[in-house]
Design brief:
This protein is an alpha/beta fold and 369 residues long. The protein has helices at residues 28-33, 59-73, 93-103, 108-118, 136-149, 194-198, 201-208, 229-232, 236-246, 251-257, 279-302, 304-308, 332-344, 346-359; strands at residues 2-7, 14-19, 22-27, 47-52, 87-91, 125-126, 132-133, 167-174, 180-184, 218-220, 223-227, 258-264, 312-315. Helices cover 40% and strands 18% of the residues.
């Protein structure tokens, strides 16, 4: 049973509510802003956010970690992650996975199958200048085939026609301004309507995966994009900021309304984890790897209270992926073994269990009244 009592007028004041035996307090204005759409949260029934790092082929580790989470919910029929997260964001291959799980609403099994099919595009080819790049035409074709296989229009927009759907975003970078750009399935008044109304799903996938020196830049609405990895390989802060914008919550209110934030990495690569064919960009990619963990550490320090309360979680393989490069298709079995070993660690297993408990509480289908 759910009900609410308001003290004050309709625009301000205090609202006391009961939802399934839980007593909650909230301001009327904030309550109204959080009672519309999927994933809406009132006090004590917060949002569930998922942030996915970039990492090339090592993105397979992300899928395996999410699979473990969903199997802990239902071993026989793991549910689609879009049913358990209100917002999924990512960059590079993490962005690609975010699109598959969020915008395309794939199950984790469907995502793993589709991801394996896409991996062939991470085979370097020699460009006209003698440098090695991944073939962006092959990548675009593979994304469109994936859409068709999933029963979707290959030219569909990233924009999601369903207001009730899990919200999805990817990070990209403006080539000329070196400015971080968010491409999203949902409207954001700060960004305006041009990219929102025009960006196709395959274009968003290309934009977030267009790493400098790896894929050619892509132009959308007369703006050229390169990979969001140049500064946002770990998009956890962007995920937090997007949630604040979507649900119109300041930092303090967002802290209160978040049920769980899950940040998943692709392992910590060593300095030998890049093929000689990519030597021109290896220095940049090594810096990116360092930035990824620095971002994770900085976020943990700033939101220590959420981690201590087990409302924020960071999962990434600490050992075993040191020598796996962005394009190293031969290491899939190693990625799987290293991730499996990481998931077997007692500390990891305990954190995963607490994470699932949080995921199952409130969130996407919960309403206050």
């Amino acid at each position: 049973m759910s009900y609410a009592i308001t003290f004050g007028d309709n625009n301000s004041g205090l609202q006391l509510g009961v939802n399934n035996g839980t007593l909650n307090f909230n301001s009327v204005g904030n309550m109204q802003s959080t009672m519309s759409g999927a994933g809406d949260s009132s006090s004590g029934m917060g949002l569930r956010l998922l942030s996915l790092d970039g990492g090339g082929v090592r993105g397979f580790s992300i899928i395996l970690i999410i699979r473990n989470l969903m199997e802990r919910i239902d071993r026989e029929n793991p549910p689609a992650p879009c049913r358990y997260f209100d917002l999924i964001g990512g960059t590079s291959t993490g962005g690609l996975i975010a699109i598959m799980l969020g915008r395309m609403r794939m199950t984790i099994k469907e995502c793993e199958i589709a991801y394996r099919k896409l991996l062939h595009v991470f085979t370097p080819v020699r460009g006209d200048t003698g440098t090695y790049r991944f073939d962006h035409r092959a990548f675009e074709h593979a994304i469109k085939i994936m859409l068709v296989d999933h029963g979707m229009d290959p030219e569909c927009l990233l924009q999601d026609p369903s207001a009730e759907a899990c919200k999805t975003f990817v990070c990209a970078t403006s080539e000329h301004l070196a400015e971080k750009i968010i491409l999203s399935s949902y409207w954001n008044e700060r960004r305006g309507g041009e990219l929102f109304n025009e960006t196709k799903l395959w274009e968003a996938a290309r934009a977030t995966c267009a790493a400098i020196g790896l894929f050619e830049p892509i132009t959308i609405c007369e703006e050229s994009f390169v990979d969001g990895q140049t500064g946002t390989n770990n998009p956890v802060q962007e995920t937090w900021a997007e949630a604040a914008d979507i649900w119109q919550l300041n930092n303090g209110r967002l802290r209160y309304n978040v049920q769980c934030l899950v940040s998943i990495g692709t392992g910590i690569p060593g300095y030998t984890a890049f093929a000689p064919s990519l030597s021109e960009v290896a220095k940049t990619l090594k810096a990116i790897a360092m930035e990824t963990e620095e971002t994770a550490d900085r976020f943990r320090r700033h939101y220590t209270d959420l981690f201590q309360a087990r409302r924020a979680f960071r999962f990434t393989v600490g050992r075993g992926l040191n020598d796996v490069g962005l394009e190293d298709l031969s290491k899939l079995s190693l990625i799987k073994a290293a991730t499996r070993n990481y998931l077997r660690i007692d500390e990891t297993s305990v954190e995963m269990r607490h994470c699932v408990e949080r995921m199952e509480e409130g969130g996407h289908n919960a309403s206050f009244a």
